[in-house]
Specification:
Number of strands of chain A: 9
Number of strands of chain B: 10
Number of helices of chain B: 10
Distance between the termini of chain A: 12 Å
Order of helices and strands of chain B: HHHHHHEHEHEHEEEEHEEE
Helix content of chain B: 40-55%
Largest sheet of chain A: 7 strands, parallel
Radius of gyration of chain A: 15 Å
Largest sheet of chain B: 7 strands, mixed
Strand order of the largest sheet of chain B: 6-2-1-7-8-10-9
Structural class of chain A: alpha/beta
Shape of chain A: globular
Shape of chain B: globular
Oligomer: heterodimer
Radius of gyration of chain B: 22 Å
Strand content of chain A: 15-25%
Helix content of chain A: 25-40%
Strand content of chain B: 15-25%
Order of helices and strands of chain A: EHEHEEEEHEHEHEH
Structural class of chain B: alpha/beta
Chain lengths: 193, 300
């Protein structure tokens, strides 16, 4: 199948552990798009987060390595103290300065995906307590990608998704279970010739 | 006067009635931007001799965009125009394109592992030559120098610290780092196996920390471009952390072959925490001394 979308990027901050666990445990093992995740975390955090997500998900979960080929199924979590970027067919890491005090930064991931994958990107912004992600969603939208924001009222911390929906016209504003089923539907969509 | 197509194109996209039209429009913008990038990099290379064409596109694009934001340049083509016709534009761009974010004892566990695994090897050599490639403003070089002094190795070690950007090397030679970061560095230093107090090595002066000049006594800071320059000596250790992530696969392979040619028999190669020899042609030429800390040893 010539699929309409090639890549899912996910950004979250405060409350992300629960949100990611629920989202990934709801996605079926048959989900066939690579998923790149930025979760704000301290630079000293260890690999416990990826361990927890690995247990929760039916998809293979790992911490991203630089120049690792993008594979599907595959869930790639940004390591602490790096930015994660999407290249055309691989992952890239960067130690450039934090953006709005964050490294990793959600904006950096989303903007890179918009540049490398154009309109084949699905961007998902979840719970959080800052403004990261809004600019990135604008870039995704600008290049014709698909934008899903967690319903701020259903989020553990509604500030980040609320800021996003105030500044970007999201394609969907949904709670976590609905996001999982929306992703499954979008992943099966065929490319319009 | 340079025209700026972006806002009009945005309006055009918004008004595209069908999703199909919006889709083809969006991919056209990406194609156009890629073309502009290609032309810019070609102009920099052909006109000035600096080759960024094999840099990792995602982060390079980001740095170019950031430079354009700082310099109030609206399109990549407008930047190309400046690069070709305004002599001072290149230096400003080069400075923004090189990544000069660094720290002392970044990834402390690497330095702890280096003490434990590499230092005993170095003790067996009468003289040790170390190449620190992509040293930026020098924080990691001073960190290494401190480590070697504490292990009693500084007299026999010579560090060649290189970067492609000469302005950061001037900074590195001075050995003055922001005082505000000493708290973070002190904690890194201890976690990395530091044996004294980091403050033994510097004097606070205004908002800077001036490091002891003896730490730079056996260090030669010199310009070297991994993309264009050749091997210049033979080394027992090469440290190149978080530099190859800015290269594409071809250029990374090129740099690794340069390192491989520059390493003495059984020489040690240290990469950044999330960089590896996996997915490269050099995987079988090296053995991991510490897979976790990305410390490798040449097999022959």
């Amino acid at each position: 199948m010539n699929a309409r979308y090639a890549l899912v990027v996910v950004g979250t901050s405060t409350g992300g552990l629960h949100a990611l666990t629920r989202l990934l445990s709801t996605l079926p093992g048959s989900f066939r798009l690579p998923i790149l995740i930025v979760q704000h975390r301290s630079k000293d955090s260890d690999e416990r987060l990826s361990g927890l997500l690995r247990v929760a998900s039916q998809l293979p979960v790992s911490e991203a390595e630089d120049k690792e080929p993008l594979r599907a199924p595959g869930v790639y979590l940004c390591p602490p103290d790096y930015h994660l970027l999407a290249e055309a067919d691989s992952l890239a890491l960067s130690t450039e300065e934090p953006v709005a005090y964050s490294r990793p930064s959600i904006d950096v991931l989303f903007e890179s995906a918009a540049y490398s994958h154009g309109n084949a990107v699905i961007a998902v912004l979840l719970t959080g307590a800052n403004q990261d992600g809004t600019r990135g969603l604008q870039a995704v939208k600008h290049r014709g990608g698909y934008v899903i924001v967690q319903d701020p009222n259903s989020a553990e911390s509604g500030f980040m998704p609320r800021h996003a929906v105030q500044h970007v016209v999201a394609d969907r504003v949904l709670d976590l279970e609905q996001i999982a089923s929306e992703l499954v539907v979008r992943a099966s969509e065929a490319r319009v010739a | 006067m340079v025209t700026t197509p972006t806002p009009d194109l945005v309006t055009l996209a918004a008004s595209a009635a069908s999703e199909g039209r919006a889709q083809s429009f969006a991919s056209a913008t990406s194609d156009l931007e890629r073309l502009e990038m290609e032309l810019l990099l070609l102009a920099i290379y052909r006109h000035h001799g600096f080759d960024f064409r094999a840099y990792a596109p995602a982060s390079l694009h980001r740095r170019i965009r950031r430079h354009m934001g700082n310099a109030h340049i609206n399109t990549i083509t407008a930047l190309t125009e400046l690069i070709l016709h305004e002599p001072a534009a290149l230096q400003r761009l080069l400075h923004d394109l090189s990544v000069n974010v660094t720290a002392m004892f970044r990834d402390p566990s690497f330095f702890a592992e280096f003490r434990q695994t590499v230092v005993p090897l170095l003790r067996t050599y009468p003289t040790v030559r170390i190449w620190h490639a992509g040293c930026s403003t020098g924080e990691e070089v001073y960190a290494m120098s401190i480590l070697l002094e504490e292990e009693g190795l500084s007299e026999r070690c010579r560090i060649y610290a290189t970067d492609m950007d000469s302005t950061v090397l001037d900074h590195a030679r001075q050995g003055i780092f922001p005082l505000a970061r000493m708290k973070e560095y002190t904690s890194n230093y201890f976690l990395g196996g530091g044996k004294r107090s980091l403050s033994d090595y510097y004097i606070a002066k205004y908002d800077g920390a001036l490091f002891a000049p003896r730490l730079a006594k056996n260090v030669l800071f010199t310009q070297h471009n991994l993309a264009m320059d050749r091997s210049f000596s033979e080394f027992n250790v090469i440290v190149c952390r978080n530099v190859l992530i800015y290269f594409d696969r071809t250029l990374k392979d090129h740099a690794l072959s340069l390192f491989s040619d520059s390493l003495a028999t059984l020489g040690v190669l240290c990469l950044g925490r999330k960089e590896s020899l996996r997915f490269t042609a050099f995987e079988s030429d090296f053995t991991a001394l510490s897979a976790r800390e990305r410390i490798y040893r040449r097999n022959r």
